[in-house]
Write a structure and sequence with these properties.
By secondary structure, this protein is α/β, with parallel strands linked by helices. It has 2 domains: about 190 residues, Glucose-6-phosphate isomerase like protein, domain 1 (Rossmann fold, 3-Layer(aba) Sandwich); about 55 residues, Helix Hairpins. Helices cover about 55% and strands about 15% of the residues. The strands form 2 sheets. A 5-stranded parallel beta sheet has the order 5-4-6-7-8, with helices on both faces. Strands 1-3-2 form a 3-stranded antiparallel beta sheet. The longest helix has about 50 residues.
Length: about 260
């Protein structure tokens, strides 16, 4: 299901538009094609190469059965990120990055447990017997937790990688991942340092069309990884069943003699 993006697709989505030249990070120089009307233009050939590298690496992470956490709290990225991550059953953070979300995961897990125990309570009859004010307080508590932690409610262990939109805005998440040696894949604009992440994908991280195209391309690689993992597991199951059947037949044959 790979999205085979071409130069023209990136061009149409405006992936090549960087920031004003005075806002640039000199470390992005290798990915800049030219300067036009005071704006840096990103070399889309480099973007395609980086995107392919990132896609292959992220695909093999997913194929091994691990999770990739999507991180994008900027307005124009939230919806597409939560949509794609939910579809792929991957964890995501689109509201606010809680400091320690990775480095202090034990505390985050406590909050996730609290959320699931509130869910249990709300399904219980005793909840209906609580005073209206108490019910309201519990519901508000649940809403607050859902807003910040809803996207990672199924996370039982640290993700194997992060996929980030705008590493300047999500610098805390990037820093935490770095501390724990969790690889970071990211859409990196001309005002950021690509060396801060493991797999930079140079491109416009402000325009919805550009963000959407890159998110869908990475999601497609994740989907491929999930498909391959399922195929491998199905083949393994089939093999085990065949071996068990052979063993059964052999036993039955021995008993017949």
């Amino acid at each position: 299901m790979a999205l085979n993006l071409e130069y023209k697709d990136l061009l149409d989505a405006g992936v090549h538009f960087g920031h004003l030249t005075r806002k640039w990070d000199p470390k992005m120089a290798p990915y800049i094609f030219m300067e036009k009307n005071g704006i840096h233009i990103i070399d889309l050939n480099k973007t395609l190469v980086c995107l392919e590298e990132a896609s292959n690496a992220i695909k093999s992470i997913v194929r091994s059965g691990r999770k990739v956490m999507f991180v994008a709290t900027k307005k124009q990225a939230k919806d597409i990120v939560s949509e794609e991550a939910s579809r792929l059953k991957m964890p995501f953070v689109t509201e606010r990055w809680l400091g320690g979300m990775l480095t202090n995961f034990a505390t985050i897990r406590k909050s996730l447990k609290k959320m699931s125990s509130i869910d249990k309570l709300m399904k219980d009859e005793t909840f209906l017997n609580l005073a209206k004010r108490e019910r309201l307080m519990v519901s508000r508590d649940r809403e607050k937790l859902e807003r910040v932690l809803g996207g990672i409610s199924d996370l039982t262990r640290l993700p194997a990688a992060l996929f980030v939109i705008d590493i300047k805005k999500e610098h805390i998440a990037v820093k935490e991942a770095k501390k724990l040696n969790i690889p970071v894949f990211a859409l990196v604009d001309t005002n950021s340092n690509p060396n801060d992440v493991d797999f930079p994908i140079p491109g416009n991280d402000d325009a919805f069309k550009s963000i959407s195209l890159i998110v869908k391309a990475v999601s497609s690689a994740i989907e491929d990884g999930l498909t391959e993992r399922k195929a491998e597991r199905d083949a393994q199951k089939q093999k085990e069943m065949e071996e068990a059947k052979k063993a059964e037949d052999a036993t039955a044959e021995g008993e017949d003699k």
